[in-house]
Design goal:
Layout: E1 5-7, E2 14-18, E3 50-52, E4 59-60, E5 74-76, E6 81-82, E7 98-100, H1 112-116, E8 124-126, E9 148-150, E10 172-174, E11 195-197, E12 219-221, E13 228-229, E14 243-245, E15 250-253, E16 267-269, E17 274-275, E18 292-294, E19 301-303, E20 316-318, E21 323-325, E22 337-339, E23 344-345, E24 359-361, E25 366-370, E26 383-385, E27 390-393, E28 408-410, E29 415-419, E30 432-434, E31 439-443, H2 452-455, E32 471-475, E33 478-482, E34 491-493, E35 498-501, E36 515-517, E37 522-525, E38 539-541, E39 546-549, E40 563-565, E41 570-574, H3 579-582, E42 594-596, H4 627-654, H5 656-674
Parallel strand pairs: 2-3, 3-5, 4-6, 5-7, 7-8, 8-9, 9-10, 10-11, 11-12, 12-14, 13-15, 14-16, 15-17, 16-18, 18-20, 19-21, 20-22, 22-24, 23-25, 24-26, 25-27, 26-28, 27-29, 28-30, 29-31, 30-34, 31-35, 34-36, 35-37, 36-38, 37-39, 38-40, 39-41, 41-42
Antiparallel strand pairs: 1-2, 32-33
Length: 677
């Protein structure tokens, strides 16, 4: 049996053909049929019941021979680079139950709705991103058994969708991303509707009254619309709601108490609005099934109510960027993701019972004291973000059991002290380490070269870190907010501590690191000669240390380097000549008084004849450009002449015996050369 091909057990006929390129499988992204056309001989497989070519890389036109597949029940040719002008061939597939043409350009197929109406068995239809902007009128709907309809990301701005009046069996409707402005009254007749996705449209508060009668709704997504003012009271009648997303609107006022009627609510997202005017209502504690509560980016104030602790199913709580205050309720005992700010006091030791905790984000609070040792029980942590607090103590014990899962550790701007624990070298999943602006001492562990996630290039397929919220990082001297692009970030920031010793050679084996900051420490020694192994390095800052030696010539091969700061050290010699280093300003090198050459104004000896560096091997086998040796050579010439002169002629001037012997020696030489006269 070949993979993707299924045959009838009795007749042996091919009844299933699956050539889909699955982006989540091991070899995802390798489109086996890239730029190829769909073979016309597929139309000869007349017993075929299932055909899936989605994301396989086919392009061009759809062969009309597919009309011969009269036994086809499922057809998926979505996400292909195709433009189709005629869909008449589809009308011959009368047994079709599932059809997916998502993101195939059908803008010129004006009769698309008439063709779909000739498929009476159709129960699931996916036409997202097909560039529709209109449809031709149909007198009646022939596919009334349709239960799933996706028309998202088209251009139905002013459509009324009257043809949907007969879709009484519809369970899922997705019209998101159409910029719809008029009321969607047609959904009032959909007595079975449970999932309604309307994000990225232009609905206003006054155009939502049609929601009153849809009591069957379980999932409602109205994110990224133009809903202003207080929450519409029409929502209060949706007692069956399980998921409610009203994020990224212009909602104001307090969170209404009628939300307490949603006994089945599992997800509530009201983030990025203007909600405020008081504290969080105690009614939130009634959502016994609530697992995700997202309220960040509002103006909510006051303490977090203790009733939140009654939410036994709560796993994710995001309330960043509000004006909440007070202490962290010790009753939050089941979370897997926690983001809170503007809180004071200590981190409760009860957090150690959060065995499912994956993301702990308590940044930009006023938390103080030691991190509780009980956090070592949270062995599933992926993100720990505690930056900008007043936390103190050491680092080794409370992070001990997270070595397998931890991907981002951000402890910037606290008061942690002591050395960097050797246990950090076992964080094999760690991509982001930010320990800047603390009071850490000792040397950088030699074993940091074993951080395996920093050795390889970051992969965009690892989305586990991105779905847990954003992280603020200092890159190239500026602050950036990372969320979905977080999977591509590999960085190490140990700046502004009291670290001593040399830069470990092992750091140069971290080939995947893009941002490395070791500035404002007391590091000495040289920049490792093999730093060119860090081929993806975009930003390097080792300023304000006690580093010495010449700048390695190998640095000119760091072609991705766009930010460099070597200032205020004790580097000497010529700056290696190459396009990469000469493209930086002199500010990248200032404070090293013995450096010379472009982009600095100080010229090197020998620049009159050539701007090229003169190779000269130092005591460690490196090339220093020859400038230092030439300087000492010319400075030593007068001194050597004087010393040599007086070593030879000094005894002759002050000793009669030396003079007699010297001239007697000269007479002997003359006699041997010329013979007696």
């Amino acid at each position: 049996m070949w993979r993707g091909i299924g045959c009838d057990n009795i007749t042996g006929h091919v009844i299933q053909l699956n050539l889909r390129n699955d982006p989540y499988e091991e070899f995802a992204g390798n489109e086996a049929f890239s730029d190829a056309h769909i073979p016309s001989f597929f139309g000869g497989l007349q017993n075929l019941r299932y055909l899936n070519l989605s994301e396989a890389g086919f392009m061009g036109t759809i062969p009309h021979q597919l009309a011969n597949l009269s036994n086809l029940h499922s057809l998926d040719i979505g996400y292909l680079d195709m433009q189709v002008e005629n869909l008449e061939w589809l009308s011959h597939l009368s047994l079709l139950e599932f059809l997916d043409l998502s993101y195939v350009n059908l803008s010129k197929a004006s009769n698309w709705l008439q063709v779909m109406n000739m498929l009476p068995s159709l129960s699931e239809l996916h036409l997202s991103g097909c560039e529709f902007d209109k449809y031709d009128h149909i007198p009646y709907v022939n596919f009334s058994s349709l239960s799933v309809l996706y028309l998202s990301h088209n251009n139905f701005v002013y459509s009324t969708f009257n043809w949907m009046n007969s879709l009484t069996s519809l369970v899922t409707l997705d019209l998101s991303g159409n910029l719809i402005q008029i009321p969607l009254t047609v959904v009032q007749n959909m007595s079975c509707l449970r999932n309604l996705y309307l994000s990225y449209n232009n609905f206003s508060s006054t155009s939502l009254n049609w929601l009153y009668n849809i009591t069957t709704l379980e999932r409602l997504d109205l994110a990224f619309n133009n809903i202003r003012g207080v929450l519409p009271r029409a929502l209060g009648s949706l007692s069956q709601l399980m998921h409610l997303d009203l994020s990224n609107n212009h909602l104001e006022g307090m969170i209404p108490r009628f939300l307490g009627n949603f006994c089945n609510l599992q997800l509530l997202d009201l983030s990025r609005n203007n909600l405020g005017g008081g504290t969080l209502p105690d009614e939130l504690g009634k959502y016994q099934k609530l697992s995700v509560l997202i309220l960040y980016g509002n103006m909510l104030s006051g303490p977090i109510p203790m009733s939140i602790g009654n939410l036994s199913s709560l796993r994710t709580l995001y309330v960043l960027s509000n004006q909440l205050n007070g202490t962290i309720p010790i009753s939050l005992g089941h979370l897997s993701n926690l983001e809170i700010n503007k809180l004071t006091g200590n981190i409760p030791s009860s957090f150690g019972s959060l065995s499912a905790l994956e993301s702990l984000s308590l940044n930009r609070n006023k938390l103080s004291g030691d991190v509780p040792l009980s956090l070592k029980n949270c062995n599933r942590l992926v993100i720990v973000d505690l930056n900008e607090n007043y936390l103190s103590g050491g680092l080794s014990i409370w992070l001990g059991n997270s070595s397998a899962s931890l991907m981002a550790l951000v402890l910037r701007s606290n008061r942690f002290h002591g050395s960097i624990p050797q246990e950090f070298c076992h964080f094999n999943s760690l991509q982001i380490m930010d320990l800047a602006h603390n009071k850490l001492s000792g040397s950088i562990p030699q074993c940091f070269g074993n951080l395996s996630a920093m050795v390889r290039q970051a992969s965009s397929e690892n989305t586990s870190i991105a779905r847990m919220g954003e992280i603020f990082l200092i890159m190239k001297g500026e602050e950036y907010e990372y969320r979905w692009s977080l999977v591509l970030v590999i960085s190490m920031d140990l700046s502004s501590n009291n670290l001593i010793g040399e830069i470990p050679q092992g750091l140069t084996s971290l080939y995947g690191v893009r941002f490395l900051n070791l500035s404002y420490n007391q590091l000495h020694g040289r920049i490792p000669e093999k730093i060119n192994n860090m081929t993806l390095l975009e930003s390097l800052d080792v300023s304000t240390n006690q580093l010495t030696g010449v700048i390695p010539q190998s640095m000119v091969s760091l072609t991705f380097l766009s930010y460099l700061n070597l200032s205020y050290n004790y580097f000497y010699g010529r700056i290696p000549f190459g396009t990469q280093l000469q493209s930086f300003s002199a500010l990248s090198f200032i404070g090293n008084r013995d450096l010379c050459g472009p982009p600095l104004t100080a010229s090197c000896i020998g620049d009159d004849s050539s701007l090229e560096p003169t190779p000269n091997v130092d005591d460690e086998g490196g090339e220093n450009g020859g400038w230092v040796d030439k300087k000492w050579f010319y400075m030593g010439m007068p001194f050597g002449f004087v010393v040599g002169f007086w070593v030879v002629f000094g005894p002759l001037a002050f000793s009669k015996a030396w003079r007699s012997a010297f001239f007697k020696f000269l007479d002997g030489i003359k006699y041997k050369l010329f013979g007696g006269v």
